[in-house]
């Protein structure tokens, strides 16, 4: 408990009661609570989906399989007829060993991975250039302000 000698330690500082600070706190705690409640809802949905998947799971999730055809790009008709094509645009044909069924499984090709890698590298290079230009511009601005301040101080003498 607070005593009279330390009464100022018990009060909320006035800086914390500014509207901007309060709005930031409300936003932060709103996002935290949204994340917590969203995670709880998603776990309930995932539990329901897991029960559904157990009934209709593809054979390659339940048993051993052999790749019959390597990962390749889906073509026009395959995109419409094979559901696995819609996930990545690439599929591989597999043969399940126990049930001896042929199914398609979505996959990621090396071409696609390489394309995504270079796209990421390009984006990072572009951001590097943008932020380097911003740093140089800010430094020039600060240098100009400092020289103006020194000039004004010298003129005032």
Protein architecture, described:
This protein is an alpha+beta fold. The protein folds into three domains: 15-53; 58-108, Signal recognition particle alu RNA binding heterodimer, srp9/1 (2-Layer Sandwich), CATH 3.30.720; 110-157. It is built from six helices and three strands. It has helices at 7-10, 19-56, 59-62, 76-81, 85-88, 110-155; strands at residues 65-73, 90-96, 102-106. Strands 1-2-3 form a three-stranded antiparallel β-sheet. A hairpin with a 5-residue loop joins strand 2 (90-96) and strand 3. It is elongated, with a radius of gyration of 30 Å.
Looking at the structure, what is the overall shape?
elongated
pLDDT below 50 for ≥5 consecutive residues: which ranges?
Answer: none
Give the topology string: H per helix, E per strand. HHHEHHEEH
Radius of gyration: 30 Å
* CATH class category name of the largest domain: Alpha Beta
Going across the major beta sheet, what is the strand order?
1-2-3
Total number of helical segments?
6
Distance between the termini: 57 Å
Roughly what is the average pLDDT, rounded to an integer?
A: 80
Give the CATH topology of the largest domain: Signal recognition particle alu RNA binding heterodimer, srp9/1
- Binned strand content: 5-15%
Give the total of domains: 3
Class per helix and strand makeup: alpha+beta
Give the biggest sheet. Answer: 3 strands, antiparallel
Number of strands: 3
CATH architecture of the largest domain: 2-Layer Sandwich
The portion of residues assigned to helices is 55-70%
